[in-house]
Every structure is written in C-alpha cells, then in structure tokens.
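Quick one:
INPUT:
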C-alpha cells in the first residue's frame, strides 16, 4: 500500500473550504487533480469522477467513487476502485488554524496497479499532483467572499 500525504494552510475558514470541496459540479473550474465530478456530496453518495493519472497525464481515468466519510467542515473521504487492480481512499481533513484552515490531503492506494508504483514515482509524480490541487484550492478560496 502507498500513502500520499500533503498539507496546506488555506486562507479561509473551514466552512468555506468545505463548500468548495463538496461542490463537485464545479470541480472542472479549478481542480487539476479531480478534473470533473458530478453529484451531491453526502455520505454514501456515488459520484462519477474523471481524475488525473499522474503517471499518464495524457490519459485521465473515469471512475465512480463512493463517499465513505462526510463530516461537514471537518473531513471528507471517498473510495474509488477497480476490482483487484486499484483501490484509492482519498482523504481531506480540515482543522482551524490561525488565519485559515489546515488541510491534510492524501490517498491510501492498494491493488495490483499501485504495486507497480515505486516510492520514487509516488514522490515525483503523485505528491506534486496533490500539492497542485492544494494550491488550486487555495487560489479558489483567495478570491471568495466569506
């Protein structure tokens, strides 16, 4: 299993971060990692999503993820999988920090496909993609009114 973890300090209260993270229908406007999503964010919801594959940038992947954790303004998780080949548990944890919100963002990956990723591939391809999403989220929030 691979664990990807990134952190960012976002310039907004957790409620504002939550609003952007759960507005799946607008992901295409700002999100460079989860390129497109559609549906209502709620526990158990199945959300069709198009995601960037950091190893094959020319071939975004389509999958339907299921929301497995939904704690408003605190935590959002979803799981996407292709039986035996891949399972990804994507996580967002929010906590108040002076001047904004601390974001812990990552994924736990398992399955045959993830076994083919070396630690170097995770560090050089996946971590920068997750950090790019964090920066895009901060940019989206910077222009918002709270």
């Amino acid at each position: 299993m691979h664990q990807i973890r990134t952190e960012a300090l976002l310039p907004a209260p957790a409620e504002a971060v939550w609003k952007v993270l759960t507005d799946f229908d607008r992901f295409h406007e700002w999100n460079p990692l989860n390129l497109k999503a559609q549906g209502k964010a709620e526990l158990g919801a199945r959300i069709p999503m198009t995601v960037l594959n950091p190893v094959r940038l020319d071939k975004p992947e389509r999958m339907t993820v299921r929301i497995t954790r939904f704690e408003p303004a605190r935590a959002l998780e979803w799981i996407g999988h292709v039986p035996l080949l891949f399972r990804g548990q994507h996580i967002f944890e929010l906590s108040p920090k002076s001047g904004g919100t601390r974001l812990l963002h990552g994924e736990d990956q398992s399955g045959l496909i993830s076994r083919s990723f070396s630690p170097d591939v995770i560090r050089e391809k996946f971590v920068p993609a997750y950090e790019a999403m964090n920066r895009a989220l901060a940019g989206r929030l910077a222009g918002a009114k709270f």
